[in-house]
Amino acid sequence: MRTVRPLVVVFGASGFLGSAVSRTLSALPVRLRVVARRETVLPGAPLAEVEVCRADLTARGAVADAVKDADVVFPFAARIRGTSGWRIAEDDTEAERTHVGMVRELVEVVDDSPVVVFPGSNTQVGKVEADRIDGTEDDHPVGVYDRQKHTAEWILKEATHAGRIRAVSLRCPRCSVPPQRPPPATGVSCPP
């Protein structure tokens, strides 16, 4: 019987997905290591034993420190370019390091084959003629971000096949945050 709480690590814990996952995990009986460049805010009185680490995960060695003794890793760090969002230039080496390099380093440095929950994107599949995407399609990513997510996912698939990790990729749909107050009436109506 396991008596030590599992160690769950969340990269990008101050970001959109990472902060939501961290808040949820903080209510569980786990050891939770939240890692981000910016301040990470969690609810008061968490059930989890929380360790907050401020780190730049693109720095060499930072990933190894962050995942030491991890049982589960959520590599949710992302490079977002201001108002352009996920539109990344071909020559953006920081984006490549964030979306692919950290995953590659994660696979190289982990011990004891942790579970890795990867935030893929439904846009990785590329253009699809069908009405629905069901996971049987071949991927043909178009944009730089989509290709980077696709590459990282393949690194995880290969590492899982080799027994280094146990990974799952969640092909998340695009998420948007509702505005804090309704926009002014424009005469255009959108169904909910």
How would you characterize the overall build of this protein?
By secondary structure, the chain is α/β, with parallel strands linked by helices. The protein has a single domain (7-172), classed as NAD(P)-binding Rossmann-like Domain (Rossmann fold, 3-Layer(aba) Sandwich). It is built from 4 helices and 6 strands. It has helices at residues 16-26, 62-67, 93-109, 144-161, and strands at residues 7-11, 31-36, 49-54, 72-75, 115-121, 166-172. It has a 6-stranded parallel beta sheet, sandwiched between helices. Helix 1 links the parallel strand 1 and strand 2 (31-36). Helix 3 (93-109) packs parallel to helix 4 (144-161).
List the keywords:
192 residues; alpha/beta; Rossmann fold; 6-stranded parallel beta sheet; 4 helices; 27% helix; disordered C terminus
Helix content: 25-40%
Number of domains: 1
Strand content: 15-25%
N→C terminal distance: 48 Å
> What is the N-to-C succession of helices and strands?
EHEEHEHEHE
What CATH calls the topology is Rossmann fold
Enumerate how many helices there are, as a single number: 4
Mean pLDDT: 84
Largest β sheet strand count, sense and barrel closure: 6 strands, parallel
